[in-house]
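Preliminary data (for renewal application), zinc ion complex.
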Amino acid sequence: MRIIVAGLGLALLAGCGQDEAAPPEPSAEAIEAGLPAPGTATAVTKQANADLAARLDLSQGSDGEDARRDRLAYIEDEAILNTNGDVVWAIPQFEFLDADAPETVNPSLWRQSQLAAHHGLFKVMDGIYQVRGYDLSVMSVIEGDTGWILVDPLTATETAAAALKLVNNTLGERPVTGVLYTHSHADHFGGARGVITDEQVAAGVPVLAPIGFSESAVSENLIAGNQMSRRATLMFGNTLPRSTTAHVGSGLGPGLPNGTVSLLLPTEEIEGRGTVRVIDGVTFEFIDAAGTEAPAEFMFYLPEKRALCTAEVATATFHNVLTPRGAKVRDALKWSRVIDYVLAEYGDKSDVVFASHHWPTWGEENVADFLASQRDIYRYVHDQTLRNANAGATMVEAAEAVEEPDFQGEDFTTRGYYGTLNHNAKAVYQHYFGWWGGVPADYNRLPHEVTASRYVDAMGGADRVLEIGQSAFESGDYRWAAEVFNHLVFADPDNQEGRDWLSATYEQLGFQAESGAWRSYYLTGAAELRRGVPDIGNPNLGNPDFLKAVPSLDLFDALAVRYNPGEMDRDPFVVVFNFPDREETISLLVEKSVLVPRMGATEDAAATVTINRSDLDRLILGEAAPLGLITGGKMKISGKRNAVSAMFDALDQPDFWFNTVTP
Ligand SMILES: [Zn+2]
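Predicted structure:
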């Protein structure tokens, strides 16, 4: 019996592909037909990137000044390490960005990546500091009467500890007197145990989070964790090197650290608008923003300092209405309204606005401009998608029709470095209409694995498809080339020329992409076509902190989504689980096609399992074996033991590295 619950939605494997051997050479046929060497931009890509550079004023301007302003110190070591001595964050890994934009990178993304890569401890204003550039996210530090109040302790315990050390070494050693999580995404709370202990919390240090935090932090990624985490490896470029032909930045921040993610639950969840708490002498006024960028989120205002923190609701990028890694779709209209609320309420009383990604914006007028632009971009994608949809557009048509608005050419904080107009318009469409565009032929389509070979036949066979694709590639029509070559690869994944050309096509799309997420997705796709999926075993997605926080019913729901009816040949039966340490009983109805967990006991159980939930967690994490628990008296099974094993044997163990670019 093996139970693994995938939970984080962020597999932290950053840079794990960096030491790999060179990929195999492309086929001689593809090279002869004009395939560009891997890592080179075609003339069309160079032109597209040059055209964008000509259209936008990509000088760093005030953004560059803001991103560098008042740096007090930086980490001078080569790397942030974990306790085993493994590299969690290599300090110089983004130094290659200190150059002009190369032909292989969208120049606007290059500029954004340069800005996000500035690293160190920065002063925001008297009493407010930020550690930036050592993680995907930013840790803000507010000086209280007696110690530091930390806002969003990064993704990993190692980067968070290094950030706090930098603060203490530079500004003087002080205790942590409060921790805030602005929202329920792991890059804002995962490092907590690197900066605070259970003992400190028990001694009264407050840990504040928005209402619904605990539930969202564990549940948002629990049931769908394997797919989300796998897709996150593509979106964040975790398996790519950091280089001008690979990962240059995520658009949201430099990249994910390869460290330990913890979960220390908050002591209080805050709700409402204008809710006030005083922490270590500092007044915080909270503004709930649930259901915008995250299911649980707040922003806050510091009246004594005239400073506004917009968490991840407003940052220096157009964010994701629907993230490519997968999550429930977000509400762009609500998002826009919440930003308008803080603009109206705090826009004229804020000298600075800072967030949990990117750099701050200073000056009352600039703060108001920033908030107005951020409000407008979510409003724009929402309204224009619906304008087109209401006129009859399908999802794809609506996304094509939503063109770059005027203000994106001037205020780069609204550009699509992370989310894009294209996929956010599709997200808005999905929010209102679901996945279907309204055309009957699309309602019950055959799977691509079935149609791919039929398309190839209909187009005249594999050689003809190669010709069609190559001619699309030569003309720079990469979106069409990708579709053509993708038919070939899905019809015959062993067609090496097809793989070579699809890989080259993804690479050009990546080289042109302004979104860091799109670039990483395309370039990881290209790499997986060349090398195959990484052969490094399933990452360990189990995590004791997270598991402990998962309610028992949710844990069994996560097991139920792995139930394989084909593996069950018994008549329906019930297994009852008793967890004495939690004084909980849960009944699991095992039917032919579904598992149905329900809190409470059931009569006529085929078997009853008595085990502490903490021991079940250890079992799930692989820290204990069933036999050992039974012989040690920690797990008792009464009734039909084989019913229990039949139930567990019917649970699938999904592979992490499933194919995405091949069938
Ligand atoms: Zn974040």
